[in-house]
Structures
1.
Amino acid sequence: MDRCRRMLDVSLVLCLLGGIASLAVTAPAGAAAAPDSRVVSAAANGQVSVDVNAGTEEELVSVPGIGKSLARRIVEFREKNGPYRQIEDLMKVQGIGEKNLERFRPYLTVGKAR
């Protein structure tokens, strides 16, 4: 009886995990395509993280506080000067100071350039 109970518990857990996994990979009809996982990733707390060396303008706009024009300047700076080496390099972009950098920091990563 104890063995049957454990098997039932394991089956229930696997079923729940499968359901959760299927929710993570399905999107409602008409939803936008998922961004490249090398560029945008979700942290354990569900927070989105964008790679400043590979992210597009559209992906950078997903970061709270980054609008279209700032995203364009981030990408243009990267294209003109090469990849960002550290997150603090973003302060070289017009419109990003210490306060903005600290606000964006939780949402950005610095990976290898494409």
Note: The first strand starts at residue 40 and ends at 42.
2.
Amino acid sequence: MTLADQLGSTSEARAWADTIPLLYEYTAGVAGERFLRGLMTGRILAGYCETCKEASLPARIYCVNCYGEIKKFVRVGPAGRISAISRPGKDGGPTFAYVTFQGVRGGMIHRLLGRGRAGSEVVPRFLPKGQRKGSINDIQGFELKR
């Protein structure tokens, strides 16, 4: 007897709701941890390849050009420029901006506090020191530089 014979027709199939408990943790990795620890101290850190003489965000442990190991991390900013911007939808959600920094390959996407446009110079607004946890949310968002 085949399995199909044992189960009968597919019209007799049944469904049920259940959950599978999954317990897991992801680490930020070596470069990610350095970046997040930098945020705790109020700094944005980029990985720096000493061979290519290039900094990159997000921070990585291997250079995307020469594949060499990145051992140095450098502070960028604090001022950056808005390269792209998303406007809130009908629900009035937050505005996000892609912020780049001079001399750095790449950038970061984060909330834009207030108004801005592509090309505007912005700076990060960090949470007060005692409230930072080593999270991207240690930056409340970017605001126009005064």
Note: Residues 27-144 form one domain.
3.
Amino acid sequence: MLHAGDACPDFSLPDAAGMPVEARALRGRPFVLFFYPKDDTPGCTAEACAFRDEYRAFVDAGAEVFGVSSDDGASHARFAGRHGLPFRLLSDAGGAVRRAFGVPATLGVLPGRATFVIDANGTIVHAFNAQFLPKAHVVEALAALRAAG
């Protein structure tokens, strides 16, 4: 798994509306990528809702937030609508971006849960991996953003 000090891999992923989000276009401001296993599962819903509940703090820190899973745009749109998610969900259908970040699988088969905080220069400043602590990802990401100032 990539860690603090590593460069953010170049990527382009579609959001729920099919609009591409490209890593190079995000340069100039910090952003958070949280990789999660699947829309509408209990842990993933808890994590997404925790990011939703603290979204204003991320915006106040100058950061954008993106959730990433292999679900398609229609699934993401339903998930975001059902839970009032204010950030964009990105579809990594083949898992290439998950692999580029080195997000480990849980028990060798379940897509892992990891969060990366990337600074305005495209450098990872914090990486956190904890499959069974979904809400901790929000705490970790906010702390890293505040520390990076």
Note: Residues 8 and 144 are 16 Å apart (CA to CA).
